[in-house]
Amino acid sequence: MRKIFSALILFLMLVGISAQNKPAFWDDIQHFKQLNKENPPPKNAVLLVGSSSFTMWKDVDAYFPEKVIVNRGFGGSSLYDLNFYSEELLKPYSPKQIIIYCGENDFAGNEKLKPREVFNRFKHFYAEIRKYYPEVPVAYVSIKLSPSRENLWPKFIETNSLIRKFMERKENAEYIDITKAMNGPDGKIRKDLFLEDMLHMKPEGYQIWKKVMEPYLK
User: Fold this and answer.
1) 9, 60 Cβ separation under 8 angstroms
2) Which domains does the chain have, with CATH numbers?
3) Residue 136: pLDDT over 50
């Protein structure tokens, strides 16, 4: 009996160690795999990948009723994480278009990062996309100026500029600027578009994204 008890304790310890050693967002990726297994994603859909601004757009289909959209945003993720899970996020889907929103959390997680470093992360992810889908159109949605992260705005703006110039030089690539559309008549960011955390958006914010993004959707 004592041997059985000892074996059980050892098993539970190993399980606990295994759980602690999981890379960040492991559970989110496993959830996507389960979704794909239960309901295989349609081919030629618009694939959304990125962080919580996509994750929380749970009714994105209602904003674009004529499009088939697969949303694979996972909250808190950075471009580093998109690179880490690039195969899981890209290979299963065969999309007609890929749209990315990511970059905010890179700086929020490490304020010492420079725009050029985050830009390099984006370039790496773009290269990963091209490895699987050489001709599929890719669009990047600019980093929004979240009021709660005002101290990071200069880095957001510089990173957006680097990515915009990069995308303009590429074929089947577009940069979608949502920052200006989220400003009020005074030229300042509209705080009324955000939830209390001043980070995530209300439906009114997503309505603006819809209007800006719609002409770019294939």
Assistant:
1) no
2) 24-216 (3.40.50.1110)
3) yes
